[in-house]
Each structure stands twice: as C-alpha cells, then as structure tokens.
Design brief:
The chain has about 120 residues and is α+β, with helices and mostly antiparallel strands. It has 5 helices and 3 strands, in the order ααβααββα. It has helices at about 5-15, 25-45, 50-55, 65-75, 105-120, and strands at about 50, 80-85, 95-100. The chain is globular.
Length: about 120
C-alpha cells in the first residue's frame, strides 16, 4: 500500500496545473482545498483562527476545517500562538478555539509555492 502524504508534502508538491484525476476522491479534494485555504490565509494574516478561515470557505469545506488545522499543526506548518477566541459557530456555543500562525516551515512552503507560480509554464 502506498504511503499517504503528509499535509506538508501535499502542500509542497502542489502546482498550478494539478490534474483533476489526482482528486477523484471527493473527500481528498475537500481536505486539500481546506488545507490550501488555511495556508493561504496564513500568508495573508499574521494570526488567524478557524472563525476567520471558515468565513472564506465554501459550505462543503466547513466540515474539514478542524481536521485540516490538526493536520497542518501536526505537520509543523502552523502553531498555536497561545491565544484563544470564542468560536462563532453556533453549534459550539462559543467555546474557546486557538489562534494560529504559520511556522517557519509553513512560510517556506508558501514562499516556494509563490515562486513556482511566478515561473512561466513550460
């Protein structure tokens, strides 16, 4: 059985011309989309919470946000700042959630992806 890629490996390997067949499994596509959104949000904001990212996700991506954040945290791409904010999701009744920031590894992945987008397509 093939080894599953980590969130860091998926993000580092992503290119602008990702082929559709790579994402034949809808759940993999959703998870990838949410991981991309979190990484992108982290490049634009020094600190962010799930509340911030949830506001920019398509509806079907909401269910994957917690798993994506856990995956990115476990992969060393984001880290908790030590701050918390109340969740704006009604179902959570305002429980506290972490505020996150990109790590040096996360910033390096984001920079490499930005540089790859700047290169002309072959």
């Amino acid at each position: 059985m093939a080894r599953r890629l980590t969130a860091a490996e998926r993000l580092a390997a992503a290119t602008a011309d990702i082929r559709l067949e790579t994402f034949a499994d809808q759940s993999s596509w959703d998870r990838f989309l949410v991981e991309q959104a979190v990484l992108h949000f982290g490049t634009r904001h020094a600190e962010f919470s799930a509340n911030d990212v949830r506001d920019v996700l398509p509806e079907l991506g909401h269910g994957y946000l917690g798993a994506a954040i856990s995956s990115l945290h476990g992969g060393g791409i984001i880290r908790a700042t030590g701050q918390t904010v109340p969740s704006t999701l009604d179902s959570t009744r305002g429980h506290r959630i972490f505020v996150w920031e990109l790590t040096a590894r996360g910033r390096a992945i984001a920079a490499a992806r930005a540089a790859a987008r700047q290169q002309p397509a072959a």
